[in-house]
Amino acid sequence: MDLRVEYLVEPIGLGVRKPRLSWGSAGDVEIEVWKADGTRVWRASTGEAWIEYGGERLESDTAYRWRVGSQFSSFTTGLLDASDWRAAWVRPVQEPAFVERWTLTDWITGQRPELPVTSRLRPVQLLRQRFSVEGSVVRGRLYASAHGIYQAWVNGVEAGDQVLAPGFDSYQDRVSVQCYDVTSSLRGGANVLAFALADGWFAGRIGVTGSSAQFGDSVSAIWQLHLEYSDGSTGVVCSGGDVAGSVGGWVYADLFVGECYDSRAEPSGWKSHDFSDAGWAPVGLSGEGTAALRPFSGEPIRRLGEIPPRAVTGDAESGWVADFGQVVAGRVRISAVMAAGQTVTLEHTETLDGDGNWYTNIAGINKEQTDTYIASGLAEGESWEPAFTFHGFRYVRIKGVDSPPDATAIVLGSDLAWTGEFRCDDARLNRLHENVVWSQKANFLSIPTDCPQRERAGWTGDILVFAPAATNNAQVVPFLRRWLDNVRADQLADGRVPIYSPYSPWDAEAATLGTGIGAVVASAGWGDAIVHVPWALYERTADHRVLAENFDAMLAWIAYQRTPEYSESLHFGDWLTPSTIEGRPLHEAIGVAPALTGPLIAPMFRAQSLTLAARAARVLGRPEAAELESEAGRVRAEFAASSVSEDGRLPVELQGLYVLALAFDLIPARARSAAAARLAELVESRGGRLDTGFLSVPHLLDVLWDTGRRDLARRVLWQSEAPSWLYQVDNGATSIWESWDAVGPDGPRRELSLNHYAFGCVDDWLYRRVAGIRAAAPGYREVVFEPDFEAGAGEVRAHVGTPFGRVGVGWRRRDGEVRVWGTVPEGVVARLVLPGGEISLPAGEFDHRRRYP
Ligand code: BGC
After folding, report:
1. 851: which residues sit within 8 A by CB, 6+ positions away?
2. Low-confidence residues of the chain: pLDDT under 50
């Protein structure tokens, strides 16, 4: 059994009063929950694979033990009420962050900061608080958060193993609180808490425009250390006026620009209790309240792995270029023997040019991605990894050292449970799948981002497109639920869901100063994420809470979609549709799909969101269901009357528009086959190459398949000329690119990201059609195995995690026979579709063979 609380193993600092307890299998079980002192707070039984806690009210900062059958586990609650907070926000003495405000237009027109980075960035703040422990501590929990990003130490020992805490949130409304078990770092007598506090997402340069101080211009922190002694007494150490601050080794640290660390300036021993902080300044109290503080939910950002360089080329003068062989999000640790004051710089990029020369594919304002280390000159050598930044890269160029230093890529990301796998006997399809997984890893970093280097923004449209695929690879409910909390916080009073979330006050202001796509606040296909993402999560996990939490926000978005403003405003449309960007300079090209396809995309997504919201209403037993259904019908009828000709033609003849019109059922039955035929013609006229943008690409293969053109769906999947998925693979992709032709056979074509998961949505097809695992009821309670034996692979294996445990399938086609085998967990009703008929599968292992063809 796999005992989890809110999808996590033995979480601490849990923020909900009615956590979801699960054990990864169905069957009659008894559940009991106790407080640490042995008092039982709940007993229940169920035949399901999960249950919502329904016992006595859970208390703050309390340890609980629970059991399912004979298996035991635990969890602890965090500070559940604002009134649990006694600490004050402490604000170190600091020069306010240099405020730079840029708009999208500034970026596009090539404006850049005039002052050098060193005059615009500022040092990381160090904080210390002494306290004494009288007696023997049996439990110590540190609750901490910051405006900025922080790292904490207790007596020099790092608290936990998270990085970039507290993570990115819509800080105006919510600031996440981490909980660390620091019991083993405490000792009797003098102790010290130490914090390093950097600008991070709060005050640093972030987002589309690379503007700074988007949530505030000063950093501050808050913490509370809860102590429990062996005699049962308790104590609390709160951040307050006794905290002392200074600056140290970090000359500056910015998530986007990079970090500069002068190790000579690090006050030796500043994290230990016996350090003399006589010269440090007392901090101020910011006076801010604690209402926005919330226990962090989901998985923290951690170091997910290390990658050694595959090759190091170059020379001391032009720099050493280490190739890690993989596009990642993270940073580089270096080790070398260096002289005191020796300055080493590390620049990051995702690709070289066609001749193997250094090339920077990430353009924009404040996107330097450059770290600097100034050595202290230790005879035995020194090692450094930046702490308050990360980059998107495959290559690093290191300057300032005579010989290549040891360099290791540290992969960062939110520490999800990776529950799915797809493998087949074709190396290219495997690589495509791995590329998707890498892009998911890199962009599931605190929030779901478009890319981990240029904008790093929680673009709503990108995750709308990718969410179904994401669910196969990992357990994404906690991660996306946390993000949806932010989306709801950012939703405007009139129902508009911003184009990305977190959405800062500056984002809102910049939109009022912008023109064209720079002025878009909410867009069809982006704002609809508030409906599509919860629905995708519900379909794959049956966790109805995600529907319940977001239902009112769905209705508010739908209400906005009824307004003339929605139909008349500019939408991103089928963003980056290949034929609309081919042959045009990028800044011009990106405006074409919005103008051409936006007016049609708007009613299409309105209809589909109404339909999905109606389904959500049915699940939740809400009274709005029938009205939403009939409104969806009216919107479809209006669309058909205004935009679909008798012979199934659309006013704009692009593959993507036909795909969406068919996928969202916007073509009246009489014209459906004509429209499908037209789509097939459009695909064929491009030689079996796709011409779909962000919004339509997830539906392309399904629509071809469902309209009887399985041959064409397979041809598009296996296409190797651009635009196509395997073109990327054939051209050395190790992640999913933002644009199909981001890299040509002779090197990068434009300054585009090589790490955007959106087009990786095809991964869902690999699981659903090539391997053939499909959820036929929410949460895989019913499963259909229907492999495509013509898929082009000879042998395929895949599995996904479900609430009932792992659902897996494998198939092989050989010597005129197909063999299909797999696993059906208890509680799941499954059937296998084989040539010549269907078989119902009982729980357990199965293995069937058939003559084929
Ligand atoms: C981002 C996207 C996003 C798009 C919308 C881009 O710059 O990288 O992925 O969805 O803008 O306009």
Report:
1. 816, 817, 835
2. none
